[in-house]
Amino acid sequence: MAAPVTLRCTACGYENESQRVYCHNCGTKLDRRLLPRELLQGPDNAKVEQHIKKMIDPRRGIVRARTIATLKSLGVAFGLALVLTIFRVPDAYPERLSNDDAAAAPFIYDDLQAAMNQGSSRRFAYTQAQVNAYLQTAYRSRDTVVPLLKFDRVVVLFEEGSVEVAAQFEIASLLPVSLSSRQRVVLRDGRIDNQVIGGRIGRLSIPGPVMKLAELAWGPLWKLLERDRKNVAKLQSINFRQTIVPAEGTNPERREAAVEMITKAGSI
Question: Where are the beta strands (DSSP E) in the chain?
């Protein structure tokens, strides 16, 4: 172990500790130049000084305050955008029909029941507009689905191989809100086997895995539609597709969303 470095007093010869400035024995000022060079160099205080300058820099507080204010503004803007997205009805949903137009809607439930009672297999095809007209007449605003929410109507959107079922409500008769679930539907042994592939709250898209977790929230809506769901479960097949139909007043054909249903022979 190396001996401690000392500083000899030039007046009395006393060995002082290396950090002393005056001789502990006689009080004479010590000649610190006699110390080794590494002890004469003080600690590197550059980093400490730089840190202190940052702490006392008045601009630092301004930048921090502006950063916090900007983050708060972004948070408020995001929150407002989220609320506006949730409480806006998607453009794809059809307009509510007038009473006269709704009166001309096919009564799909009766059509299927009559076909099943005949005991022979029959094919039915309904456009998306016809199905929505039927739903508007079959389920009215008096049907309460969710507590504290006023039920407005059920809407369906067809795509190739899937259907989106949406329930529209009003909060305090002021704010519209819609909840939808997009599903692939398969009939197996007299029951509906549906695979959830997505959904929406207003215009906010929800991925399939999240919608599966929220499937319990659809219980009241499925209960409301129970009569038609039981009817569909008795079918031989159901397919959602884009059907080619002649455009009115023109030669070109157009594609229209539709559902095709085939009843079982002797279902009832």
Answer: 6-8, 15-17, 123-127, 149-159, 162-171, 175-188, 191-201, 204-207, 237-246, 253-262
